[in-house]
Amino acid sequence: MATFLYKLGRLAFRRRHFVALIWVALLTLAGVGAASAPPAGNSSFSIPGTEAQKAFDLLEQRFPGQSADGATARVVFKAPSGEKMTDADNKAAVHKTVDELADGSEVASVADPYQGNAVSKDGTVAYASVKYDVSGMELEESTKDALEDAAQQARDAGLTVEIGGDALQAVPETGATEVIGIAVAAVVLVITFGSLVAAGLPLLTALIGVGIGVSSITALASALELGSTTSILAMMIGLAVGIDYALFIVSRYRAELAEGREREEAAGRAVGTAGSAVVFAGLTVVIALVGLAVVNIPMLTKMGIAAAGTVAIAVLIALTMIPALLGYAGRRVKPAGAKSKLFGRSRKGEPKPDQPDGRPKANLGTRWASFVVRRPLAVLLLGVIGLGAAAIPATSLELGLPDDGSQPTSTTQRRAYDLLSEGFGPGFNGPLMVVVDAKGSDAPKDAFTDVETRIKDLDGVVAVAPPAPNKGGDTATITVIPDSKPSSVQTEDLVHAIRDAGGDIEAKTGAETLVTGSTAMNIDVSQKLNDALVPYLVLVVGLAFLLLIVVFRSILVPLKAALGFLLSVMAALGAVVAVFQWGWLSGLMGVEETGPVMSMMPIFMVGVVFGLAMDYEVFLVTRMREAYVHGEKPHQAVVTGFKHGARVVTAAAVIMMAVFAGFIGSSESMVKMIGFGLAIAVFFDAFVVRMAIVPAVLALLGKKAWWLPKWLDRALPNVDVEGEGLRTADERRADPDEDRELVRT
User: Fold this and answer.
1) How many angstroms separate the CA atoms of 225 and 213, rounded?
2) C-alpha to C-alpha distance for 507 and 503, rounded to whole angstroms
3) How many C-beta neighbours within 10 Å does residue 68 have?
4) Which residue spans within 344-502 are E strands per DSSP?
5) Which residue in 281, 270, 176, 326 sits closest to 664, CA to CA?
6) DSSP designation for 119
7) d(Cα 259, Cα 266) in Å, to the nearest integer?
8) 3-state SS assignment for residue 469
C-alpha cells in the first residue's frame, strides 16, 4: 500500500492542476445538486420490530385517510388571573381562534376545547388540538404563520397562549460557536506549523470535503428521507477528521523536507507513510459508522452511512488534494524546524543558548515519553484511576428521547408543555394510545370494553378515554393519560403493565392489544438500543481489532487499543450524565433542562468515539512501529514515536475538540449533547489514554508488545504502513512513465 500511495502522492503533486480541477468540479456539482433539490420532507422515524411501530402500521391500515404521520399542534390557552376559560369573553376569543385555524388549507381538523372536554378542572387552562394533512417539515410557511397569527389574536384578547406539538418544528441551528471552533482550529494549525500557508491547507481541504459531503446529503435528502440532524452530524465529523488527516500528511511532508528530500519526493513519501495511516484510520471510522446499521433503526443507519461517506471523502482529499496544493505552495511550506517568519523559530540542528554542546533541545513529546517509560506503572495507575473516577456517574445513566419538556424555557413549545402539566397533570404531555385489534374476536365491542376496564384498574392511570372504533368496527383506539411525565420510570412501568394485561385479554377475547404513541415509541427505542449495544460493540471492535492486527502486526497492541477505548468512552458517558442528567456545569454548557440522556447516545458514542480513538492510535503507534522495525529498542521506539508524533497528535486532538465543542451552541438538544460528548471523549482518549496509558503499557510490555505468532505473520498481508518498501525509492530516478504505471495499478 505504501508504494501505491507514494506513486499517488507524486502523481497528484505533478498533475496538481488536473487534481484541483476534479475536486472543484465535484464541489460545484454537489452544490448545484443541493441548490436544485426539492426541500427535504419529514424523515421517517420507524422502528422495525417494536410493538409501537406495529401498532402505528396497523392504524394506517385500519384508519385510512387520517394522516397518521401528519403534523399536530396544541394551542394552549390560559385565562387571566381571577378569570376562567369558561367566561363568555374568553370563550368567544377561543371560538374565534378555532374558526381562524379551521380555515387553513393544510388543516385536517380542529377540536373545539369546549366540545372535546379539553378544559382543566379548575377552568383556568384549555387547549385546541389541530391536525394537519402533511408532516411538520412539509408544512408551508404560510400555514405556520397562520397558526402563530391565530394565537396572537387570542393574546391580544388578554389570554396567555402557547403552541405545542411538531407543527412549528424548525431546522436546528448550530449557532456562532461552530465558527469559533473552526477559528480555534486555525489558530492551532498556525501555531503548529508557524506558517499561514501550511496552516491553511488542512482547513481548505476539510472545508471542500465537508462542502461536497453536506451538499450531497442535501441533494439526496428528499429522496432518501434524511433529517436535518444527518447533515449536521456529517459536518461535525467531516470537519474534525478532514482537518486531522490533512494535518498529519502536511506534517510528514515537512519532516521529509527537513531530511533533505526534494519536494515531489517528500510529497510522495508523506502520502506513502502518513497517508497509509490515514487510510486505516479512516477505515476504522467508516466501520464504526456503517456498523450502526446493526441497530436496525433506519434513521440511525442513514446518519451513520452519510457521516461515513463524508469521512471517505476526507480520506480521498487528504491523499490527493493535499499533495496537489503542496505543489502549488512550493517553498512557502518550509521544512520542519526551519525558521518561521511568524514565530522566529531556529532552524533544525542549530545550537540554542541552553545547549552549549550544539545538540538541539529535546521537544516536549520526547521529554514526556522519556518520563513515562521511566515510571510506566505509576502513569498507568494514575490514568486508569482518573478515568475510572470520571466514569462513576455513568452508573446512574437514565435513557430517554427528548420531548417538548427538554426544550429551552424560551420556546413556546416548552411553555405549552408547562401549561398543560399545570392544568391537566404531567402525564397529559405523554398520552398513551392503546390499539385494540379485534379482527379475530367474536365480540369486538365487548373486547373494547374489557380493555378499557382493565386499563382503568391499573396503577398510575389518571384518565381513560372511551374506545374509538374504526368504520369496520374491528379496531379501536383508547387514549390513556398517565399520572407521571413522559420520560419517567413510572410511565415506562405503566406501558409494560398494559402490555402484560394485553396477553390475558387476548387469551380471553381473541383481541390483540398494542400500545403506541410517542411516549411508547420512545420507550421501545430505548430498549432496542440497549439490546443492540453489546452486539454492536462486538462487531465494530472485532472488525477494527482484526484491521489493527494487520496494521501493527501485533496481538497485544490492538488489544490494548480496544481496552483503552472502553476506558475513555465510559469516562465520557460519565461526563455526559454529570452535565445533562445531574446538571453539573449545565449553565456553562447552555443546558436549560436536565433529564434522561438521549437513548442513542451510548451506542452512538461507542461507534464514533471508537473510530476517532483509533485515529490517534494509528497515527501515534505507527511511528513507534516504524522506529522499531528500523532497529530501535522498544523503549527508544516509544520515545521516537512521541518525538515525531506527539506535537501533531496534540494539535489534531485540540482541533477535533474545538470543532466538536463548537456544536454545543446548537439549539437542538441532541446535537448539543453529541457535541459535548464527542469533545470530552476526544480529550480523555487523546490526552489520557493515547498520551499516557499507551506509552506506559508499551514500556511495560517491551518486545512482547510486538509479538505475533509466526503462522499468523505468514498469513497476514503486508500492508507496509511504516513505509519500509519506500527505502529503495530514494535511489530510484523519476520514471517518466510513472503516470501510466499508476493508472495500470
Assistant:
1) 16
2) 6
3) 14
4) 399-400, 432-437, 461-464, 468-469, 475-482
5) 176
6) B
7) 9
8) strand
DSSP 406: G
Residues 246 and 91: their CA atoms lie apart, in Å, by: 65
| Residue 308 neighbours by CB distance under 10 Å | 24
Q: How far is CA 230 from CA 366, 622, 739, in A?
A: 41, 33, 39
Beta bridge partners of 165: 73
Identify the bridge partners of residue 164 per DSSP, sorted by sequence position.
Answer: 74
Quickly list DSSP for 541-557: HHHHHHHHHHHH--SHH
| Rounded Cα–Cα distance for residues 711 and 704 (Å) | 17
Q: How far is CA 523 from CA 282, 482, 519, in A?
A: 34, 14, 6
d(CA 263, CA 494): 69
Q: What are phi and psi of 464, to 5 degrees?
A: -130, 120
CA angle, 115 as apex, 113 and 121 as ends, to 5°? 60
Cα 591 to Cα 579: distance, rounded to the nearest angstrom:
8
Which pLDDT value is given to residue 732? Answer: 43
β-strands 461-464, 160-165: how paired? unpaired
Spatial separation of the C-alpha atoms in residues 13 and 6, rounded to whole Å? 11
At residue 44, the pLDDT reads 54
- Is the CB of residue 75 less than 8 Å from the CB of residue 132? no
CA distance 267 to 321: 11
| Four-point Cα dihedral 200, 206, 207, 212, nearest 10 | 150
Tell me 577's DSSP state.
I
Dist. CA 595–CA 573, nearest whole Å = 14
Buried/exposed code over 624-649 (b: 16+ C-beta within 10 A; e: otherwise): bbbbbbeebebbbbbbbbbbbbbbbb
pLDDT at 349: 41
342-376 exposure pattern, b = at least 16 Cβ within 10 A, e = fewer: eeeeeeeeeeeeeeeeeeeeeeebbebbbebbeeb
CA nearest neighbour of 663 among 45, 238, 212, 219:
238
The one-letter amino acid at 662 = G
Distance CA 481, CA 498 (A): 12
Long-range contacts of range 179-187, CB-CB < 8 Å, 24 or more positions apart? 179/662, 180/658, 180/662, 181/239, 181/658, 181/659, 181/660, 181/661, 181/662, 181/663, 182/239, 182/658, 182/659, 182/662, 184/654, 184/655, 184/658, 185/243, 185/655, 185/658, 185/659
Per the structure block, which three cell numbers stand in for 429? 404531555
DSSP state of 133: S
Taking 3-state DSSP, the helix, strand and coil percentages for the chain, each rounded to the nearest 5, stand at: 65, 10, 25
Mean pLDDT per block of 10 residues along the chain (745 residues) reads 86 92 93 78 66 85 68 87 90 90 82 84 89 74 86 90 79 59 81 80 89 86 71 82 88 86 89 85 85 82 88 93 90 72 49 50 82 93 94 87 72 87 86 87 85 88 85 87 84 90 83 87 85 84 82 86 87 92 80 77 81 77 80 88 84 84 75 86 90 92 88 80 57 41 38
pTM: 0.77
Hey, what's the cell of 364?
516536549
The backbone torsions φ and ψ at residue 478, rounded to the nearest 5 degrees and listed phi first, read -130, 120
- C-alpha torsion angle, residues 254, 259, 262, 268 (rounded to 10): -60
All three cell numbers of 281, joined, read 484510520
Joined together, the cell numbers standing for residue 349 give 540542528
| Nearest to 178, CA basis, from 666, 661, 662 | 662
> Taking the chain, what is the end-to-end CA distance rounded to the nearest angstrom?
11
E-state strands within 230-382? none
Of residues 473, 458, 472, 471, the one with CA closest to residue 515: 458
